[in-house]
Design brief:
The termini are far apart. The strands form two sheets. A seven-stranded mixed sheet has the order 4-3-9-8-7-6-5. The chain has a two-stranded antiparallel ribbon with strand order 1-2. The chain has about 200 residues and is an alpha+beta fold. It is built from seven helices and nine strands. The protein is globular and about 80 Å long. Residues about 15-30 have low confidence and may be disordered. The chain folds into two domains: about 1-30; about 40-190, FAS1 domain (Roll), CATH 2.30.180. About 40% of the residues lie in helices and about 25% in strands.
Length: about 200
């Protein structure tokens, strides 16, 4: 083989490698499959073809989240991300707030923005991945949120998984592995972020 043929072969291999890497990296950000994955919770079906907001809006169990996500800027906090896992608090998670605390929280968009970011981690993490991370890290997995804070995930002997924030808030993961257009969400009972200013 002469030098010209070797150079042509190298160029061809370089182009092929570039296209392969481009294809693999694109899969990280978009779901190229046209498959609709759905799962039900309390009679409502959540779907991978819907945004997170569209999914929670279809359920009466997330009226607080739905009200927060009516604000377009707050919606964009999570929907502008390429791939995220969201820990979605049920309405019952807010029951410990007094009426005054609840009203103050619902009027404070900065606090709501932080709240959303602190319940959201980059990437897709299903329950199996979360449990594996807990197991590989001596029973405590650290998850960095979009707010730059950390959630600590732990599991008890019964296999129940909990997330804690750095302020002492704790939530149990009740139902898992729901898809939305940009990743996964898990349903939690409790909040893993402050709901009032210190």
């Amino acid at each position: 083989m002469n030098n010209k043929n070797i150079m042509s072969l190298k160029n061809l291999l370089s182009v092929a490698l570039f296209l392969f890497v481009l294809n693999v990296s694109a899969q990280k950000y978009t779901n190229v499959e046209a498959v609709n994955t759905s799962k039900s919770f309390e009679g409502e079906s959540f779907s991978s073809t819907k945004t997170f907001t569209q999914n929670v809006n279809s359920s009466d169990s997330f009226s607080v989240l739905s009200e927060i996500l009516e604000n377009e800027q707050l919606r964009n906090v999570i929907e502008s991300e390429e791939m995220v896992t969201i820990f979605a608090p049920l309405d019952t998670s807010f029951s410990k707030l007094s009426d005054d605390e609840n009203e103050a929280f619902m009027l404070d968009t900065d606090l709501q923005s932080q709240f959303l970011k602190m319940h959201t981690v980059p990437g897709r993490m299903d329950l199996a991945s979360l449990k594996k991370a807990i197991e590989q890290n001596n029973g405590r997995a650290q998850l960095k949120t979009l707010a730059g804070t950390k959630l600590t995930a732990i599991a008890n002997k019964r296999g129940e998984v909990f997330i804690n924030d750095q302020y002492g808030n704790k939530a149990q993961i009740l139902e898992t592995n729901f898809y939305h257009k940009n990743g996964f969400f898990h349903i939690i009972d409790g909040v893993a972020a402050p709901t009032k200013k210190e």
